[in-house]
Design a protein that fits this description.
Two copies of one chain form a homodimer. By secondary structure, chain A is of the alpha+beta class. The first copy, chain A, has six helices and seven strands. Chain A has a six-stranded mixed sheet, with helices on both faces.
């Protein structure tokens, strides 16, 4: 069982911000404000809800600034030749179970539509799992819309188990 | 669509800590260290994983202290005549989607086994939804183990939709 140091006031580790090069040249790093338009395009390309606007608003910039300043949350981007082609959000959550272990949570996983099935999504998830291990988390969790019929097998190949039902209530 | 003020540095609102009395006398408040033993007993009573120990460890106390100091996370307890009979964890997560809206997440929902089906779980969830609205969140989300066969209907009655698959990877 992993122990986990409380990290409320700890800054993002240098590891999290370090660029990781993959054999297929995907570079994964924390998002910059200049990436926002590309990130929103990825979100809009594959939205299960109301489409996001293609142009970032002041609220989007503020949200990224908030996330960037927060030690427990990161918007990551995957780039190829400096083009943003993938994104995900990685969050770390404290809890009482498992001797007070932290858990990692992945949200908003997207890969550019013309670049799917080439292993880039797997690289993004493996990067997130690596960050979770580095933080001493005992669990990585995510939910996937049931309409994404191939996603379950994708995550199962990466070691995830579809043990839960994901319930949402929009306010 | 709700707008949401960035609240990374904001303390827990007084609302969150205010006791709310329900017709059936369930009182919901943030957990104190003295509640830990009762909380762990609730977790152990109904664990889908390795059972939690009945006695809190130093790690559990540190975890509760961390959570209590964090403006985005709360362990809530529901009490009857000052006995802790229910618990849940409520977390607030920033994001980019929905114009940078925050979402609320519920984890670790438990009601004492001899007090189920009396509406106490619903009171706990409705309390959490109320807190989510007060924080301007656009979404409340949770996952429920598929082995909890009645849970899906319970959450659907409260307005949740079982739209997602919840995937877990233990490290």
């Amino acid at each position: 069982m992993s122990s986990c140091t409380p990290i409320v006031n700890r800054r993002k580790s240098s590891l999290l911000l370090k660029r990781i090069e993959h054999p297929m040249n995907l570079t994964i790093r924390s998002a910059h404000p200049a990436d926002l338009r590309a990130i929103l395009t990825l979100l809009a390309q594959d939205s299960m809800n109301a489409p996001e606007p293609a142009l970032p608003s002041a609220q989007h910039y503020r949200a990224l600034e908030t996330i960037d300043a927060h030690p427990d949350h990161t918007i990551a981007v995957g780039t190829l030749n400096d083009d943003v082609v993938a994104t995900l959000q990685l969050s770390f959550l404290p809890g009482l179970a498992f001797q007070g272990a932290w858990r990692a949570q992945i949200e908003g996983v997207r890969v550019r539509s013309d670049l799917r099935s080439q292993g880039f999504g797997a690289q993004m998830i493996q990067w997130a799992i690596h960050q979770a291990r580095a933080r001493g988390c005992n669990l990585v969790q995510l939910t996937s819309n049931q309409a994404r019929t191939n996603a379950r097998r994708f995550y199962e190949r990466l070691g995830f188990h579809a043990s839960h039902i994901g319930m949402k209530l929009y306010l």
